[in-house]
Amino acid sequence: MPITRADLFSFFDRHGIDHVTTEHRPIFTVEEGRDIKAALPGGHSKNLFLKDKKDRLVLISALGESEIRINQLHKHFDCQRLSFGREELLYETLGVQPGSVTAFALLNDTEQRVRFIVDEALMQHDPVNFHPLENTATTAIKPQDLLKFARLTGHEPAVFDFSALL
Predict the structure, then answer these.
(1) What is the pTM of this model?
(2) Residue 99 — left, alpha, or beta (φ > 0 → left; ψ -120 to 50 → alpha)?
(3) 116 phi and psi, to 5 degrees?
(4) 151: which of 12, 97, 110, 120 lies 20 to 30 Å off by Cα?
(5) What values do phi and psi take at 102, rounded to 5?
(6) In angstroms, rounded to a whole number, what is the distance separating the alpha carbons of residues 74 and 80?
(7) How far apart are CA 153 and CA 130, in angstroms?
(8) Considering only the top CATH level, what class is 5-165?
(9) 148: enclosing H helix or E strand
């Protein structure tokens, strides 16, 4: 069973990661949540679950406004061309549904199958905002705590400048 939001918050508390959560209506895309995000400080994320033909998995957490050229990523990440991962694979590895993809779902990837890549532009904001495993809320943490969180889950984050691909 995937972890719950309460499990996630408990993990944060055990590891000294300060977090603030705001409840809101379900949002499935960056565009749908523009009004909500405008009222919350910090950098707001978009999260892409990708795979290549050899089933290597990648989770990208980027600033909502960043342009991600998926067809160029394989040249920089030692993999084949990437495409969006199937819903079943997303749930199997990260324990979330489409619309709720989040860096916090790395806690469910106990086998460390997913490579985690963070947008350098997102890391310039404080706080950084993600869904807490459900798209009915937004949780804010410090950018350095995002990196700490990833490492605590067994995922070494790679910070990448996606603007270099434009």
Answers:
(1) 0.94
(2) left
(3) -110, 120
(4) 97
(5) -155, 150
(6) 5
(7) 16
(8) alpha beta
(9) helix 143-152
